[in-house]
Amino acid sequence: MDGTTANLARNIRRIGHLDLPGGGQVVVQDGYAYVGHMKPPYGTTILDVSDPAQPRIAAQIMLEGEASHTHKVRVVGDMMITNVEQNRRHFLRKGEALPELRGKLSAELGRPPEDRELAAALGVEAGQIAELDAARERGYRDGGFKVWDISDKTRPRELCHKRTFGFGTHRFDMDANYAYISTEMEGYLGNILVIYDLKDPANPEEISRWHMPGQHLAGGEVPTWEGYKNRLHHALRVGDELWAAVWHAGFRVVDVSDIARPRTVASHDYHPPFPEPTHTILPLAEPIGGRRIAVAVDEEHAHRPGRLHAFLWVFDVTDFDNITALSAFDVSELDSPWARAPGRFGAHQFREKFDSTLVYVTWFGGGLRVVDVADPFAPVEVAHFIPEPLGDEPSPQSNDVDVDDRGLIYLLDRNRGLDVLEMRGR
Question: For a FRET experiment, which of 212, 218, 332, 418 has its CA 20 to 30 Å from that of 362?
Answer without folding.
Answer: 212
